[in-house]
Every structure is written in C-alpha cells, then in structure tokens.
Amino acid sequence: MRTCMRLIQVLLVVSIVPVARSGDPPGSLNHRVDSLMALMTLEEKAGQLVQVDFRSASPADPVTLHPDLERRIREGRIGSVMNAVGADLTRRIQAFAVQGSRRKIPLVFGLDVIHGFRTVFPIPLGEASTWDPELIMKASRVAALEAAAAGIHWTFAPMVDIARDPRWGRIAEGAGEDPYLGSLMAAARVRGFQGDTLASPNSLMACAKHFAAYGGAEGGRDYNTVDISERTLRETYLPPFEAAVKAGVGTVMCSFNEIGGIPCAANEHLLREILRQEWGFDGFVVSDWDAIPEMQPHGFAGSPEEAAYLALRAGVDMDMEGGAYEAHLVSLVRSGRLPEETLDSAVRHVLRAKFALGLFDDPYHGASADRERRAILAPSHRALAREVAGKSLVLLKNAGGLLPLRKDLQSVAVIGPLADDGESILGPWSGAGRSADAVPVLEGIRRKVAASTKILYARGCGVADTSTSSFSGALAAAAGADAVVMVVGEESGMSGEAASRSTLGLPGVQEQLFEAVLRLHKPLVVVLMNGRPLAIPRLQEAAPAILEAWFPGVEGGDAVADVLFGDRDPSGKITATFPFSVGQVPLYYNHKNTGRPTIDTVKYTSRYLDGPTSPLYPFGYGLHYTSFAYQSLKLGATRIRKSEGLRVSVDLHNTGSRAGEETVQLYIRDLSGSVTHPVKELKAFRKVRVEPGRTENVQFQLTPESLALYDRGMRKVVEPGLFEVMVGGNSKDLLTATLEVTAE
Ligand code: BGC
Fold it and tell me: Is 421 a catalytic residue?
C-alpha cells in the first residue's frame, strides 16, 4: 500500500513538473508540444482526449452554448467538439477555449463531411463509379473549402471500408468492393480534404475510417460481428487504410465491430502493430461514437472504466462522445493502473495535430461568416457537383438505343416517388446540405427539354408505400406521353448507418407500379436512386432502359437530365456487384475459384439449385451510348523475371456512331502459388475517349508490385509461376493472355 502511495506521489509530481521530454530543437513541432505538455495538469491532458457532440451537450438550443459545456471547455476538460456548424458558432465556442481556459489550447471542430458540405456531391459509391480519382480529389477539395470556411477543421472522412455485402447500408459511404480502386479513392480524398498543408484555412484534416473490416459485418447487419482471417484482413480490408496513411491522413477512426473476439477499440494489433509500427502513422486515432463504453455490451470490458483503460492502452487517442475518458482517465493514472506515459503519448498525438492545423497561430482557422457565405454553393462548386454526378451515372441497359431521348418530344411523363424529391437525392450523410438547394430530376428535365415539350408529372406511390391506390395518376400521365421517365429506388435513409436491409429489391409497391406502366408499352426509362447494389432482375428483363443514378447530390436532377437527353454520354461503371437475388450475397468479383468452380448445369460444382451464381451486373460494368470492341491484347513479353515489369497493350475500337469514354480495366490472376488467390484482381485502369469508328491503342505498364501477393508467410512477394492478364470493359468480358513469371 505504501509503495502504491509513493508511486502515486511520484506520478503526481511528474505530471506537474515542466520537463522537456524531447531533444528536439526549440521551435520544432515536437518541442512546442512537449513544452506545452510540461505545463499541463493531468486533468488538462486528459481533457485533450475528450470529444463531445455539440448537439448533445447543448440540447435545448443548438445555437446557444449550454453553460455546462462552456464550463467544461473553460476548465480544459474538452479537446474537441463535433457537430457545431457555422463560422459564428464555432468562433464563439473556440473563444471559451482560447480566451477562457488556463492553457488556451484550441479545440478542434469535427463534422462528417462525407460527400460535400452545402454543395453535396454524389454519395461516395456513386463518386467511385466515375473511376476518376483526380475528379474525386477536386470534389473533396470543394467540400474542404466550404466546411473550413464554416469553422470545421476535421472531417470524419474518407470512409474507406471495403464492402462486399449490399445489405450493409454503409456500402453507400465507401468506394465499393475493390481494394485497388478503394485505395486510389482513399488517397485522392485525403489529398483533396487536406490540400498541400493542414495549416491552410482551406484544408480539413481527414480521418480514414472505420479501422477495420467494419464492412465485413455478418449478414450485412450494421455493427455486427466480424470474423475474418489475417489474410483477408490484409488482402481485402486494409489496403485503402494503408493508402490513406501513405497519403498523409491526419487521423484514423477505429470501428465499432470486433474482429475474432477483439473489439477494434481495444485492438493493439491493428492500432499499434499495423497502424503505427508497420505503416508509421503519426496522427491520432479517434474512437467511433461511443465505441469505447460499448466494449461493455460487447462482453469485453467489465465497466466503462475498464473500457477506457483498454482503449487507451490499445492506442485510441480520443474518445468520441463516449464519456469514458472524461470520467476515468485521470483516476486510472492516479491509481497507477495506467502509466502516465501512455496518456502523454495520446495527448502528444492530439496536440501535434492541433499544431499542424495551425490552431495555435489562428484558432479560428480563417473561418468567418463572410468567408462562409462566399464559399458555400459557389457557382464553380455547383458546376463541379454536376460534372461529378454526370460521370457517376451508370447506364445499366439501353435496349434498341432508346436513350438518349430527344429534347423536342411532344410530351414526357415523369413519374415515381423520387422524381420530385429534393431530399433523398442528397443521400445519407449529406453534410450541411439542404433540400431547397437541390435540383430534383423533374426540375432537371423541365430545364432541359424544349419549351414546347409538355411534362406530365405524377408520383404514383411513395418509396415504401404498400398501397397501389395512387397508381392511377401516374398511369394516366404515362398513357398520354411520348416517353416515360420513372424515378424509383430507395429513400436516402435506407442506406448509410444503421440502415441494413434483408431484401434488395425495390421497396414497397414500386415494382408493381413499374409492371403497370410497362403494360402501356411506352418508351420507358427507369432511373434508379439508391445507396447500394439492388437485386432487380425483373427490371433488367423488362425495362427498355435503366440508368443508375445513386444519390447524385445537389445537382443530381441536372446531371440526370444531361445524360437522359444526350448532353453527356454515360461513362460510369459500378464498383460493387449487383446480384440477381439476396441469397447470392456476399457476391464479389475477386472471389476464390474453389476446387469445384461453378458449372451451372453440373451438380457437384459450387452453385445454387434455384438460381444463377453469376451476378446481374458484374463489377466494372456500365454501358455507353456507343459500343466498344477490344482487340489484340499483347504482352511486352510472355515470360518475365519476378523483378521485372510488364507492358500490356490492347486496341479499343469504337464500333458505334457516337464518341464515348471507356474505362479500360486490367485484371490479373495468379494461377498457382503457396496459397490460393482470387480468380481476378483489378491492377490498373485507364479512361480513354474514342471517336466513332476510331481505334485507340491503350497501354499499361505493370510493375512487380502489381503481381505481388501475400504468400503463405504473409510476405508480399511475386511467386514464380503462371499468371493470366485480362483486359476489358468490365470484370466479366475480358481478353486473356498468359504470362510466365520466373525466379531471378
Ligand atoms: C459513425 C461514424 C461517424 C460518427 C460521427 C458514428 O455513428 O459510425 O462514421 O463519423 O458517428 O458522426
């Protein structure tokens, strides 16, 4: 007992005596951090690790600061505030910290700026369908400009979770199922948010989330258990996180789920061994919302205090709205259970980020009401949103070249529950987006067609309606029109967090409305709005044309009209497989072959008795208003050494009568090795525009890195043997060449 008291005394002394820890030169970041920390009390240090939600902390009135929150900030008990939006409000809150608190340490303000702030871009699954990381970088830049002007320093984005299960609502927030494309998108978003330097008033600090394998939830049910091998973790789920770290991401958020019995909020293997030691991450880790105390219901921690101890020890630096760090860190250190050095290291990570953001020089990061007014919804931002939305649209079917429609039709019926919806079009996690800013599809079509074209609008039913009683208006409109555009799908709240579905068809009676309209035998275009791949075999069978619009954002209606009426050619490609039925899920292109690969007609092969094993639309699929033929796949050599690169070329012929932009995709397969490998893996792609009747030669230069795979010992190496190199316009229709890789 006496030893324990002595230890506590020593710890107390250490916590208040100003010691400069590092030998870093004066003025350097580390020196500034250490000098500051030497002056901080234990309570103040613990305070840096506490993040509170402004809405919960000031519940009565979202614009007035609750006296209790003000007091906690003045006492230095809070390091970060989330969900306080607007330059005026954040400036007022910040003033309590930098004028009213003893150490004057600025707060860092966080918000989910996922796909835009006021200028809302398509949901990330839509953005990924552009296959254009540069463009997505620009979109993230715009999001940063607007949010930073409104007082936000830190976005909880990009969400880089690989998702192979469309039942999981959060598939909408990521780039889909592929680790390579997901990595490129992750890096692009980090660069876009963070800009050249975090200290710029135009930059947001990014946060790669949710670390890790959150998308592997069993049954696609949000927050559910994940049980995957270290191999699957590294091959499938980790690459986008590593790419984000390489791109300099400032923070990482741990996920809610467990992996193999260990909740990610206490997973030292992930947070210390992989993230910090292997990848050299030097930012800070924030928990997901309440994820620390939730380790109690997980059955992992016996109490919130135990949860706080386990999380900090594992490497979670900041507690998002969990209350566990605020309540327990100080006593955990005072009691000697938690070494003060563990706490210090977390505080150091947080303070370094605040210095990097320049908050000690300008705690307001340049935010002002005037800047905010000028930044939000600037015409150039809206123009970019329209371009991104246009490029994210995927043409799934176009029988007989029904699309594009003529602008001078005598009449068009625009029907369906989402046709005039300015709310859902923004999608889940729509930042500071407002439905009043959005252009619904009906409005986009109105603006597009000739003045003489009559538009007949009727909703027909609601998204989730179970009654067909309002069909008659929509049927009457369709019956009297030259062409019908039917906008159906999901409400935005049907995807995103806590929005898993156990079915994947159109909700409610929408498919019945489709059948009824179909019976009118009109030129019918189905526009889909949804946050996940849907199982819609009947639509594919019967609808003349289908355009996947995702939730296309604030300029969605204009972008859809651009494509429907031919001002823009569709060029998007899906980045998550569409199944025929929910029973096939999880269904993804980079699966293993098994010992008995599918032959649909042969019993003892890997297949279903009552339906196909193949997808409705494969990964990488999307049509154009023209058509392409792939010819003459050539390898620079058919045999290479494992340390050598490889040139691959293919001819892309535009066989149609319009120009078009194709996304040429290159996949490889390692045919045998010390472990099994997927039947194909995306390794490169290029977007190429080809004029009608012309042929473009498309070249790729593969590096040894492209052929490297995790071997039995989990080393990333090229294993000598036979490979296939495949090139085409989607993951199914491919030209194939064989390559032999030899040892040195
Ligand atoms: C989500 C995170 C989000 C956080 C803050 C959580 O419920 O899982 O993705 O960043 O809330 O809003």
Answer: no
